[in-house]
Amino acid sequence: MAAVTGVYEIEVVRREWIGRSTPVTAGRYPVEHDPIRRHCQMVEDRNPLFLDPEFAATTRFGGVISPPTLTDYFAGRGAWPPSTEGAAFIRQVPTRGDRLINMNQTLEFLRPARVGERLASQMVIVDVYEKPIRLDPQAVWIVFETRVTNAAGELVSVTRNTLLTHRSPDAVAADA
User: Fold this and answer.
1) Residue 150 backbone phi and psi in degrees, to 5
2) E strand or H helix at 121, and its extent?
3) H or E stretch at 49
4) Closest Cα to residue 115, out of 167, 159, 162, 70?
């Protein structure tokens, strides 16, 4: 997190950053049955909607769907080559401190991801605010969402992260 020199004005940061987003980035791979099967075997999930194409074809989904927790995987860029796009975006938000902690994450799944679909993702800053903590009375919190969409632009899932940034005890003492 880039530390801010001089006067830090949270309202200026809020006006400049709330609503900013990364470009929509297509996932590297389509939703595929084999990664779903391997994931389900690993976590001992025997849901036939994820594993049995014949059964899944008879349901309202019309075929195998992805476990909801895999939507980020299919909307992502894959393990190689490594991507730092999201982290670099969040680290651009001006804060006082250089220490970052992910405090909370919520996931909302809105529609199934079907085998063969292409997913995409976009990060959006939804809030920036100050809230004191014991270590830093002027800690800055950043809330952002990762929005996953399908090829039709329909929202598939939303992951909301709340990050805390704070200064070192020495920096807080020097500022007092």
Assistant:
1) -95, 180
2) strand 120-130
3) helix 48-51
4) 70
Return the structure tokens found at 124. 């959006």
Residue pLDDT, tens place only, 75-133: 987 766 666 666 788 889 999 998 999 999 999 999 999 999 999 999 999 999 999 99
Q: Is residue 29 a contact partner of residue 126, using CB atoms and an 8 Å limit?
A: no
The pTM score is 0.86
Q: Provide CB contacts within 8 A for 63, sequence distance 6+.
A: 53, 56, 57, 114, 115
Domains and CATH numbers, the chain: 10-31+66-175 (3.10.129.10)
Bridge partners for 108 per DSSP = 158
What is the spatial distance between Cα 98 and Cα 148, in angstroms, rounded to a whole number? 29
